Amino acid sequence: MVDIRRQWITMLCVLFLLSGCIPNEYKFENRSDEDVGKAEQLLKKDDRLKGVAALFHEDQLLVGIRVKTFSRFNKRKIATEIEKKLKEDYPDLSVFVSADSKILTETNKLILKNDEKGLKKKIEQLISLAEEET
């Protein structure tokens, strides 16, 4: 009986520790003349998000978002709302926001890669792929 309790306590401790291992990730890369502060503030204060990758490049803003578990059923609506707010804050930029995990992953790769060559073309390809899927 004591052995079963010990096993349950051990399992609960392991589950508790594992549930806290996934941190919120917010990555912002600015390769333009725009002020990133408004976007950072908007995206970090939104409690429905748990991950963001935003890339400012020339006249484009590409944002990939990861929504929290209970918000995942409304992720397209959330992405649309955020896109609308960002377009208001950055009227001179072409803004694209997606809750698709592939867009988030690829945006992270583009941020980590310091290759300016062909970046605009890669961003446009990502946007066109995302628009085809929807």
How would you describe the overall organization of this protein?
The protein is of the alpha/beta class. The chain has one domain (24-133). Helices cover 51% and strands 22% of the residues. The protein contains 5 helices and 4 strands. The chain has a 4-stranded mixed sheet with strand order 1-2-3-4, sandwiched between helices. Helix 2 runs antiparallel to helix 3. The chain starts with a helix and ends with a helix. The relative contact order is 0.14. The mean pLDDT is 86.
Task: List key phrases describing it.
51% helix; 134 residues; four-stranded mixed β-sheet; 4 strands; 22% strand; alpha/beta
| Low-confidence blocks of residues | none
Assembly type of the shown chains?
Answer: single chain
Distance between the termini: 55 Å
Number of helices: 5
Shape: elongated
Can you count the beta strands? 4
Tell me the number of structural domains.
Answer: 1
Report on the biggest sheet. Answer: 4 strands, mixed
Q: Rg from C-alpha positions?
A: 19 Å
Portion in strands: 15-25%
Helical amount? 40-55%
Mean pLDDT: 86
Structural class: alpha/beta
Order of helices and strands: HEHEEHEHH
The largest sheet has its strands arranged as 1-2-3-4
